[in-house]
Amino acid sequence: MVAPRLYFLRHGQTDWNRLGLLQGRLDVPLNGRGRAQLQSLTPLLKQLPIERVYCSSLLRARQSCQALGLTQTTSYNPCWGELSLAQQQAQLSPGLKALLAHNWQRLWAGLGRGGLLVSHGSLFEAWCLVLGQTPIGLDNGALLSMAIDGRYQFIHPGFSF
Fold first, then answer.
1. How far apart are CA 13 and CA 33, in angstroms?
2. CA nearest to 24, candidates 125, 121, 139
3. pLDDT means over runs of 10, the chain (161 residues)
4. Is there a domain that residue 161 lies in?
5. Which domain range does residue 20 map to?
6. Phi/psi class of residue 141: alpha, beta or left (left: φ > 0; alpha: ψ in -120 to 50)?
7. 48, 42 Cβ separation under 8 angstroms
8. d(CA 34, CA 14)
């Protein structure tokens, strides 16, 4: 039996991303380039064994799912969302680490053969820290394959500015 995989996709570009501004939990929409980035990934995503789609409830992630044509099969949840700016700027507290670990396990519990999570770079980086992996920044549209222990590999590196 093949181990399940989580495919992690960072949302498409926003104007704030293009300008290098932190968005936190603000609902900033995708720009035209962000929608085009995601549409170019559609053929690649169709080749992956994705049974479930999870998504941050923030606008830029929801619009990313729309650009990929995934709105009918998507489960939206704020726990897959962006960390607050205060959380991003501080060390991860024990309480936040426990919450992140709980959400990670909860996601894996319902994954099936494979699932796609459309979310944000700060969530990926925080999960890496909690799971003992080296965090890296993700470009918009980056697509990774992740194992339950947090190891990851790039499927698509994303789109730099």
1. 6
2. 121
3. 83 94 87 94 91 91 92 77 58 77 81 85 85 87 90 87 53
4. no
5. 5-156
6. left
7. no
8. 6
